[in-house]
């Protein structure tokens, strides 16, 4: 995880944080009027940004996505206590791309994410990364709003997961095909900007174990959280947000979410990155 701290010593990485935050916010704010949950979330095609920028700009995309989402909350009128969990959720949304790519064992394509070689296997790997990052973001935010007593987990968990996944899977591959080679030629990939000692020195086995663990925990957390909401808390699927406002705060959701979040932090701390070895 040290690259998430040491990147702040490089002026170019700091500039990329600002670029990612500005682009992300600029693509979110115009759609803020297409509300899914009043005061909480809206239709967000800009959700493709964290994962594809994460694959190109690494830790700068994690910070940029978190800050960009916070800017959107302020301008869209949704800033509040839940914005803290939005910041954390979008941080992981932007971080998991470069942590998982190349480290997913049989799901990995073994090449850089430019969709020019082994495109079919790259698509499989990209979908796995997109689903994991979307699930992590959805679970963290839905759990946070459950902790705050605002909404049951399933109300936000379902919407955010589908919103993130659809935008990323549909728009991500063509955007990477068009932009990745250009960013690479400009020398702006995070692997070009960070020093070798800034990147995590993690063995292949440990990196794969951490990546597959992050994939598994992210998906399991959002699935189990939604199941508990619907089965234990008796929240209907696609429940009306107005009718469920103030029904969060379930002890079982808070406890299981805390355990999942701690496991997630532990796996992140021992995770590595393999993109630097895959780039020609």
Automatic annotation (TrEMBL):
<dbReference type="Pfam" id="PF06177">
    <property type="entry name" value="QueT"/>
</dbReference>
<keyword id="KW-0812">Transmembrane</keyword>
<feature type="transmembrane region" description="Helical">
    <location>
        <begin position="123"/>
        <end position="145"/>
    </location>
</feature>
<keyword id="KW-0472">Membrane</keyword>
<feature type="transmembrane region" description="Helical">
    <location>
        <begin position="151"/>
        <end position="178"/>
    </location>
</feature>
<keyword id="KW-1133">Transmembrane helix</keyword>
<feature type="transmembrane region" description="Helical">
    <location>
        <begin position="210"/>
        <end position="230"/>
    </location>
</feature>
<feature type="transmembrane region" description="Helical">
    <location>
        <begin position="83"/>
        <end position="102"/>
    </location>
</feature>
<dbReference type="InterPro" id="IPR010387">
    <property type="entry name" value="QueT"/>
</dbReference>
<protein>
    <submittedName>
        <fullName>QueT transporter family protein</fullName>
    </submittedName>
</protein>
<feature type="transmembrane region" description="Helical">
    <location>
        <begin position="250"/>
        <end position="270"/>
    </location>
</feature>
<feature type="transmembrane region" description="Helical">
    <location>
        <begin position="12"/>
        <end position="36"/>
    </location>
</feature>
<feature type="transmembrane region" description="Helical">
    <location>
        <begin position="48"/>
        <end position="71"/>
    </location>
</feature>
């Amino acid at each position: 995880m040290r690259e998430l701290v040491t990147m702040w010593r490089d002026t170019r990485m700091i500039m990329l944080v600002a670029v990612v935050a500005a682009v992300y916010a600029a693509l979110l704010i115009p759609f803020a009027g297409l509300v899914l949950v009043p005061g909480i979330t809206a239709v967000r095609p800009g959700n493709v940004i964290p994962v594809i920028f994460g694959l190109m700009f690494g830790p700068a995309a994690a910070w940029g996505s978190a800050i960009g989402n916070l800017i959107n909350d302020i301008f869209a009128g949704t800033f509040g206590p839940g914005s803290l969990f939005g910041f954390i959720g979008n941080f992981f949304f932007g971080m998991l791309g470069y942590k998982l790519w190349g480290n997913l064992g049989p799901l990995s394509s073994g090449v850089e994410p430019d969709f020019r070689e082994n495109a079919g296997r790259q698509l499989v790997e990209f979908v796995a990364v997109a689903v994991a990052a979307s699930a992590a973001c959805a679970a963290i935010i839905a759990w946070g709003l459950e902790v705050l007593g605002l909404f049951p987990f399933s109300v936000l968990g379902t919407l955010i997961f589908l919103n993130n996944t659809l935008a990323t899977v549909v728009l991500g591959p063509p955007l990477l095909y068009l932009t990745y080679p250009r960013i690479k030629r400009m020398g702006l990939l995070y692997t070009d900007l960070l020093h070798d000692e800034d990147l995590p020195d993690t063995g292949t086995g440990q990196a794969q174990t951490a990546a597959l663990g992050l994939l598994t925990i992210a998906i399991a957390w959002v699935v189990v959280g939604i199941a508990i909401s619907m089965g234990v808390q008796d929240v209907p699927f696609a429940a009306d947000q107005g009718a469920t406002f103030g029904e969060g705060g379930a002890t079982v959701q808070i406890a299981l979410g805390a355990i999942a979040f701690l496991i997630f932090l532990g796996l992140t701390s021992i995770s590595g990155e393999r993109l630097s070895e895959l780039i020609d």
